[in-house]
Protein backbone atom coordinates (compact mmCIF):
# COMPACT_ATOMS: atom_id res chain seq x y z
CA UNK A 1 0.00 0.00 0.00
CA UNK A 2 1.07 3.54 -0.78
CA UNK A 3 0.08 6.88 0.68
CA UNK A 4 -1.11 9.31 -1.99
CA UNK A 5 0.57 12.72 -1.82
CA UNK A 6 -0.92 15.72 -3.60
CA UNK A 7 2.06 17.73 -4.80
CA UNK A 8 0.11 20.93 -5.49
CA UNK A 9 1.25 23.65 -3.09
CA UNK A 10 4.11 21.67 -1.56
CA UNK A 11 7.78 22.65 -1.19
CA UNK A 12 10.12 20.17 -2.88
CA UNK A 13 13.88 20.06 -2.39
CA UNK A 14 15.64 18.73 -5.50
CA UNK A 15 19.36 18.10 -5.13
CA UNK A 16 21.51 17.98 -8.25
CA UNK A 17 18.96 20.29 -9.84
CA UNK A 18 21.37 21.44 -12.59
CA UNK A 19 21.99 17.84 -13.59
CA UNK A 20 20.42 15.92 -16.46
CA UNK A 21 17.70 14.17 -14.46
CA UNK A 22 17.31 16.88 -11.82
CA UNK A 23 16.63 19.75 -14.23
CA UNK A 24 14.19 17.73 -16.32
CA UNK A 25 12.35 16.57 -13.19
CA UNK A 26 11.99 20.14 -11.94
CA UNK A 27 10.65 21.30 -15.32
CA UNK A 28 8.06 18.52 -15.41
CA UNK A 29 6.90 19.22 -11.85
CA UNK A 30 6.37 22.90 -12.65
CA UNK A 31 4.47 21.94 -15.81
CA UNK A 32 2.27 19.35 -14.09
CA UNK A 33 1.47 20.87 -10.68
CA UNK A 34 0.21 24.19 -9.35
CA UNK A 35 1.78 26.43 -6.71
CA UNK A 36 4.72 24.09 -6.18
CA UNK A 37 7.87 25.66 -4.77
CA UNK A 38 11.12 23.97 -5.76
CA UNK A 39 14.30 24.55 -3.79
CA UNK A 40 17.14 23.41 -6.00
CA UNK A 41 20.71 22.85 -4.84
CA UNK A 42 23.73 22.02 -6.98
CA UNK A 43 27.45 22.57 -6.49
CA UNK A 44 28.01 23.12 -10.24
CA UNK A 45 31.22 21.10 -10.16
CA UNK A 46 33.43 20.72 -13.24
CA UNK A 47 33.02 16.96 -13.73
CA UNK A 48 31.67 18.10 -17.08
CA UNK A 49 31.07 21.46 -18.78
CA UNK A 50 29.56 23.85 -16.22
CA UNK A 51 27.99 25.91 -19.02
CA UNK A 52 25.64 23.00 -19.76
CA UNK A 53 24.48 23.04 -16.15
CA UNK A 54 24.02 26.81 -16.18
CA UNK A 55 21.96 26.56 -19.37
CA UNK A 56 19.66 24.06 -17.68
CA UNK A 57 19.29 26.39 -14.70
CA UNK A 58 18.35 29.35 -16.90
CA UNK A 59 15.22 27.55 -18.07
CA UNK A 60 14.21 26.99 -14.43
CA UNK A 61 15.03 30.44 -13.08
CA UNK A 62 12.26 32.02 -15.17
CA UNK A 63 9.81 30.45 -12.71
CA UNK A 64 9.25 32.62 -9.65
CA UNK A 65 8.64 29.52 -7.50
CA UNK A 66 12.15 28.23 -8.18
CA UNK A 67 14.88 29.06 -5.69
CA UNK A 68 18.43 28.03 -6.57
CA UNK A 69 21.19 27.53 -4.02
CA UNK A 70 24.73 26.91 -5.21
CA UNK A 71 26.23 24.57 -2.66
CA UNK A 72 27.44 21.11 -1.79
CA UNK A 73 25.13 18.66 -0.01
CA UNK A 74 28.24 17.45 1.84
CA UNK A 75 28.17 20.80 3.65
CA UNK A 76 25.90 20.06 6.62
CA UNK A 77 25.51 23.74 7.50
CA UNK A 78 24.00 24.53 4.10
CA UNK A 79 21.57 21.61 4.31
CA UNK A 80 20.45 22.59 7.81
CA UNK A 81 19.94 26.19 6.70
CA UNK A 82 17.74 25.02 3.80
CA UNK A 83 15.58 22.94 6.13
CA UNK A 84 15.31 25.73 8.71
CA UNK A 85 14.37 28.38 6.16
CA UNK A 86 12.23 26.50 3.64
CA UNK A 87 10.93 23.44 5.53
CA UNK A 88 10.60 21.16 2.48
CA UNK A 89 7.78 18.61 2.35
CA UNK A 90 9.50 16.35 -0.17
CA UNK A 91 13.14 15.50 -0.89
CA UNK A 92 14.19 14.27 -4.34
CA UNK A 93 17.89 13.50 -4.01
CA UNK A 94 19.46 13.33 -7.47
CA UNK A 95 22.83 14.83 -6.50
CA UNK A 96 25.65 12.35 -6.89
CA UNK A 97 29.10 11.96 -8.29
CA UNK A 98 28.36 9.78 -11.31
CA UNK A 99 30.49 7.58 -13.53
CA UNK A 100 31.92 4.13 -12.93
CA UNK A 101 35.40 4.66 -14.42
CA UNK A 102 35.83 8.10 -12.82
CA UNK A 103 35.39 6.50 -9.39
CA UNK A 104 38.62 4.57 -9.89
CA UNK A 105 40.71 7.73 -10.26
CA UNK A 106 38.69 10.16 -8.08
CA UNK A 107 37.31 8.17 -5.12
CA UNK A 108 37.12 11.15 -2.74
CA UNK A 109 34.39 12.80 -4.82
CA UNK A 110 32.17 9.73 -4.43
CA UNK A 111 32.52 9.49 -0.67
CA UNK A 112 31.89 13.22 -0.27
CA UNK A 113 28.74 13.48 -2.40
CA UNK A 114 27.25 9.99 -2.41
CA UNK A 115 27.88 9.07 1.22
CA UNK A 116 28.45 12.17 3.36
CA UNK A 117 26.02 14.30 1.36
CA UNK A 118 23.35 11.62 1.51
CA UNK A 119 23.87 11.21 5.25
CA UNK A 120 23.40 14.96 5.75
CA UNK A 121 20.04 14.80 3.97
CA UNK A 122 18.92 11.80 6.03
CA UNK A 123 19.82 13.63 9.24
CA UNK A 124 17.95 16.74 8.10
CA UNK A 125 14.91 14.61 7.25
CA UNK A 126 15.11 12.96 10.67
CA UNK A 127 15.10 16.28 12.49
CA UNK A 128 12.34 17.72 10.30
CA UNK A 129 9.91 16.01 12.71
CA UNK A 130 11.35 17.72 15.79
CA UNK A 131 8.97 19.75 17.96
CA UNK A 132 5.99 17.86 16.47
CA UNK A 133 6.49 19.35 13.00
CA UNK A 134 4.90 17.44 10.12
CA UNK A 135 8.31 17.11 8.46
CA UNK A 136 9.23 15.19 5.34
CA UNK A 137 6.33 13.39 3.69
CA UNK A 138 8.51 11.43 1.25
CA UNK A 139 12.25 11.15 0.56
CA UNK A 140 13.11 9.83 -2.92
CA UNK A 141 16.71 9.07 -3.82
CA UNK A 142 18.62 7.95 -6.88
CA UNK A 143 20.37 4.62 -6.74
CA UNK A 144 21.81 2.79 -9.74
CA UNK A 145 21.75 -0.45 -11.70
CA UNK A 146 25.46 -0.63 -10.81
CA UNK A 147 24.53 -2.10 -7.42
CA UNK A 148 23.85 -5.43 -9.14
CA UNK A 149 27.57 -5.79 -9.92
CA UNK A 150 28.39 -8.73 -12.18
CA UNK A 151 25.14 -10.52 -11.33
CA UNK A 152 24.72 -13.40 -13.78
CA UNK A 153 20.96 -13.63 -13.28
CA UNK A 154 18.96 -11.45 -15.67
CA UNK A 155 16.77 -9.50 -15.65
CA UNK A 156 17.92 -7.86 -12.43
CA UNK A 157 15.26 -7.95 -9.73
CA UNK A 158 15.18 -5.82 -6.58
CA UNK A 159 15.08 -9.09 -4.63
CA UNK A 160 18.50 -10.12 -6.00
CA UNK A 161 21.59 -9.91 -3.80
CA UNK A 162 23.58 -6.72 -4.29
CA UNK A 163 26.53 -7.24 -1.98
CA UNK A 164 29.29 -7.70 -4.58
CA UNK A 165 29.90 -4.28 -6.18
CA UNK A 166 32.56 -4.03 -8.88
CA UNK A 167 33.17 -0.27 -8.55
CA UNK A 168 33.35 2.30 -5.77
CA UNK A 169 30.46 4.14 -7.43
CA UNK A 170 28.28 1.04 -7.03
CA UNK A 171 29.46 0.59 -3.45
CA UNK A 172 28.44 4.15 -2.54
CA UNK A 173 24.99 3.64 -4.05
CA UNK A 174 24.52 0.42 -2.10
CA UNK A 175 25.65 2.29 1.00
CA UNK A 176 22.90 4.85 0.35
CA UNK A 177 20.29 2.12 0.18
CA UNK A 178 21.46 0.60 3.47
CA UNK A 179 21.55 3.95 5.27
CA UNK A 180 18.11 4.81 3.93
CA UNK A 181 16.65 1.55 5.22
CA UNK A 182 18.16 2.17 8.66
CA UNK A 183 16.73 5.70 8.86
CA UNK A 184 13.33 4.48 7.66
CA UNK A 185 13.32 1.92 10.46
CA UNK A 186 14.68 4.15 13.21
CA UNK A 187 12.85 7.38 12.44
CA UNK A 188 9.83 6.29 10.37
CA UNK A 189 10.89 8.37 7.35
CA UNK A 190 9.10 7.29 4.13
CA UNK A 191 11.98 6.57 1.73
CA UNK A 192 12.02 5.25 -1.84
CA UNK A 193 15.16 4.39 -3.80
CA UNK A 194 15.22 4.23 -7.59
CA UNK A 195 17.77 2.12 -9.43
CA UNK A 196 18.21 3.92 -12.76
CA UNK A 197 19.34 2.02 -15.85
CA UNK A 198 21.52 3.88 -18.42
CA UNK A 199 19.65 7.16 -18.76
CA UNK A 200 20.04 8.99 -22.09
CA UNK A 201 18.43 11.72 -24.19
CA UNK A 202 18.87 15.30 -25.42
CA UNK A 203 21.12 17.58 -23.34
CA UNK A 204 22.52 14.67 -21.33
CA UNK A 205 25.88 14.26 -19.67
CA UNK A 206 28.78 14.63 -22.13
CA UNK A 207 30.56 11.61 -20.64
CA UNK A 208 27.71 9.27 -21.63
CA UNK A 209 28.51 7.04 -24.60
CA UNK A 210 25.97 8.40 -27.09
CA UNK A 211 27.05 12.04 -26.66
CA UNK A 212 30.73 11.23 -26.27
CA UNK A 213 30.70 9.08 -29.42
CA UNK A 214 28.91 11.80 -31.40
CA UNK A 215 31.43 14.48 -30.40
CA UNK A 216 34.37 12.21 -31.21
CA UNK A 217 33.04 11.08 -34.59
CA UNK A 218 32.25 14.66 -35.57
CA UNK A 219 35.87 15.54 -34.77
CA UNK A 220 37.17 12.59 -36.80
CA UNK A 221 38.36 10.75 -33.70
CA UNK A 222 38.21 7.01 -33.01
CA UNK A 223 35.61 5.71 -30.55
CA UNK A 224 36.58 2.97 -28.08
CA UNK A 225 34.24 -0.01 -27.82
CA UNK A 226 34.88 -2.04 -24.67
CA UNK A 227 34.58 -5.79 -24.21
CA UNK A 228 34.93 -5.96 -28.01
CA UNK A 229 31.33 -4.81 -28.30
CA UNK A 230 29.95 -7.71 -26.27
CA UNK A 231 27.97 -5.54 -23.89
CA UNK A 232 24.26 -4.94 -23.48
CA UNK A 233 22.64 -1.98 -21.79
CA UNK A 234 19.06 -1.30 -20.73
CA UNK A 235 18.88 2.21 -22.23
CA UNK A 236 16.16 4.33 -20.58
CA UNK A 237 14.99 7.57 -22.14
CA UNK A 238 15.03 10.68 -19.97
CA UNK A 239 11.30 11.40 -20.32
CA UNK A 240 10.49 7.91 -19.03
CA UNK A 241 12.82 8.38 -16.07
CA UNK A 242 11.26 11.73 -15.16
CA UNK A 243 7.74 10.35 -15.42
CA UNK A 244 8.78 7.49 -13.16
CA UNK A 245 10.35 9.81 -10.58
CA UNK A 246 7.24 11.99 -10.40
CA UNK A 247 4.87 9.04 -10.08
CA UNK A 248 6.99 7.67 -7.26
CA UNK A 249 7.14 11.07 -5.55
CA UNK A 250 3.36 11.23 -5.24
CA UNK A 251 3.07 7.75 -3.66
CA UNK A 252 4.99 7.21 -0.43
CA UNK A 253 5.46 3.95 1.47
CA UNK A 254 2.87 3.67 4.25
CA UNK A 255 3.90 4.15 7.86
CA UNK A 256 2.78 1.37 10.18
CA UNK A 257 3.79 -0.19 13.48
CA UNK A 258 4.93 -3.80 13.64
CA UNK A 259 4.26 -6.47 16.22
CA UNK A 260 7.26 -5.33 18.23
CA UNK A 261 5.72 -1.90 18.70
CA UNK A 262 8.36 -0.32 16.45
CA UNK A 263 7.95 1.12 12.95
CA UNK A 264 7.93 -1.27 10.00
CA UNK A 265 10.40 0.56 7.73
CA UNK A 266 8.42 2.67 5.23
CA UNK A 267 11.02 1.85 2.61
CA UNK A 268 10.89 0.72 -1.03
CA UNK A 269 13.37 0.08 -3.85
CA UNK A 270 12.46 -0.03 -7.54
CA UNK A 271 14.18 -0.51 -10.88
CA UNK A 272 13.45 2.06 -13.57
CA UNK A 273 14.64 0.71 -16.90
CA UNK A 274 13.36 -0.01 -20.37
CA UNK A 275 13.22 -3.76 -19.64
CA UNK A 276 14.90 -4.36 -23.00
CA UNK A 277 18.71 -4.58 -23.11
CA UNK A 278 20.29 -3.51 -26.40
CA UNK A 279 23.55 -4.77 -27.83
CA UNK A 280 26.24 -2.08 -27.84
CA UNK A 281 26.95 -2.59 -31.55
CA UNK A 282 23.23 -2.24 -32.31
CA UNK A 283 23.22 0.97 -30.31
CA UNK A 284 26.16 2.30 -32.34
CA UNK A 285 24.46 1.31 -35.59
CA UNK A 286 21.24 3.15 -34.69
CA UNK A 287 23.21 6.20 -33.54
CA UNK A 288 25.22 6.17 -36.78
CA UNK A 289 22.05 6.07 -38.89
CA UNK A 290 20.57 9.01 -36.99
CA UNK A 291 23.75 11.06 -37.31
CA UNK A 292 23.64 10.52 -41.07
CA UNK A 293 19.89 11.18 -41.30
CA UNK A 294 20.28 14.58 -39.65
CA UNK A 295 23.34 15.50 -41.69
CA UNK A 296 25.59 15.65 -38.65
CA UNK A 297 27.84 13.19 -40.48
CA UNK A 298 27.98 12.64 -44.26
CA UNK A 299 26.54 9.50 -45.86
CA UNK A 300 30.06 8.55 -46.95
CA UNK A 301 31.41 8.56 -43.39
CA UNK A 302 33.50 5.43 -42.75
CA UNK A 303 32.39 4.31 -39.29
CA UNK A 304 34.50 1.14 -39.35
CA UNK A 305 37.64 3.22 -39.68
CA UNK A 306 36.72 5.11 -36.52
CA UNK A 307 36.14 2.13 -34.21
CA UNK A 308 38.62 0.60 -31.83
CA UNK A 309 37.72 -2.58 -29.94
CA UNK A 310 39.12 -2.98 -26.43
CA UNK A 311 38.75 -5.52 -23.60
CA UNK A 312 36.42 -5.01 -20.62
CA UNK A 313 37.43 -2.15 -18.38
CA UNK A 314 37.60 -2.27 -14.55
CA UNK A 315 34.22 -1.52 -13.00
CA UNK A 316 32.21 -2.37 -16.12
CA UNK A 317 29.65 -5.16 -16.38
CA UNK A 318 28.65 -7.10 -19.53
CA UNK A 319 24.90 -6.50 -19.24
CA UNK A 320 22.28 -4.42 -17.45
CA UNK A 321 18.67 -5.54 -17.64
CA UNK A 322 15.84 -4.27 -15.42
CA UNK A 323 12.97 -6.31 -14.08
CA UNK A 324 10.38 -3.54 -13.75
CA UNK A 325 7.36 -5.66 -12.81
CA UNK A 326 7.07 -4.28 -9.26
CA UNK A 327 7.40 -0.71 -10.50
CA UNK A 328 4.72 -1.29 -13.17
CA UNK A 329 2.37 -2.85 -10.63
CA UNK A 330 2.70 -0.10 -8.04
CA UNK A 331 2.77 2.93 -10.35
CA UNK A 332 0.93 1.78 -13.49
CA UNK A 333 3.75 2.88 -15.74
CA UNK A 334 6.39 1.18 -17.88
CA UNK A 335 9.19 3.04 -19.65
CA UNK A 336 8.62 2.33 -23.33
CA UNK A 337 10.55 4.78 -25.50
CA UNK A 338 12.40 2.74 -28.12
CA UNK A 339 16.14 3.23 -28.56
CA UNK A 340 15.52 4.33 -32.14
CA UNK A 341 13.04 7.03 -31.10
CA UNK A 342 15.25 8.14 -28.24
CA UNK A 343 18.37 8.47 -30.38
CA UNK A 344 16.32 10.20 -33.09
CA UNK A 345 15.30 12.84 -30.56
CA UNK A 346 18.89 13.15 -29.40
CA UNK A 347 20.25 13.57 -32.93
CA UNK A 348 17.64 16.23 -33.75
CA UNK A 349 18.60 18.11 -30.58
CA UNK A 350 22.33 17.80 -31.29
CA UNK A 351 21.89 19.10 -34.85
CA UNK A 352 19.98 22.14 -33.56
CA UNK A 353 22.47 22.99 -30.82
CA UNK A 354 25.90 22.05 -32.17
CA UNK A 355 25.94 21.79 -35.97
Provide a short characterization of the protein structure:
With 355 residues, this protein is of the alpha/beta class. It contains 11 helices and 17 strands.
Verbal overview:
With about 350 residues, the protein is α/β, with parallel strands linked by helices. It has one domain (about 1-200, about 235-275, about 320-335): 3-Layer(aba) Sandwich (Rossmann fold). Helices cover about 40% and strands about 20% of the residues. The chain has eleven helices and 17 strands. The strands form six sheets. A seven-stranded parallel β-sheet has the order 4-3-2-5-6-7-15, with helices on both faces. Helix 1 links the parallel strand 2 (about 10-15) and strand 3.
Which characteristics define this entry?
alpha/beta, 17 strands, seven-stranded parallel beta sheet, two-stranded antiparallel sheet, Rossmann fold
Strand-helix topology:
Layout (H helix, E strand, L loop, with lengths): L1 E3 L6 E5 L4 H13 L4 E6 L7 H12 L4 E5 L5 H11 L3 E4 L8 H4 L1 H21 L10 E7 L23 H20 L3 E6 L2 E2 L8 H10 L4 E3 L6 E2 L2 E2 H12 L1 E3 L2 E2 L5 E2 L2 E6 L5 E2 H14 L13 E3 L15 H7 L7 H16 L1
Parallel strand pairs: 2-3, 2-5, 3-4, 5-6, 6-7, 7-15, 8-11, 9-17
Antiparallel strand pairs: 1-12, 10-16, 13-14
Helix pairs in contact: 1-2, 1-8, 3-5, 5-6, 9-11
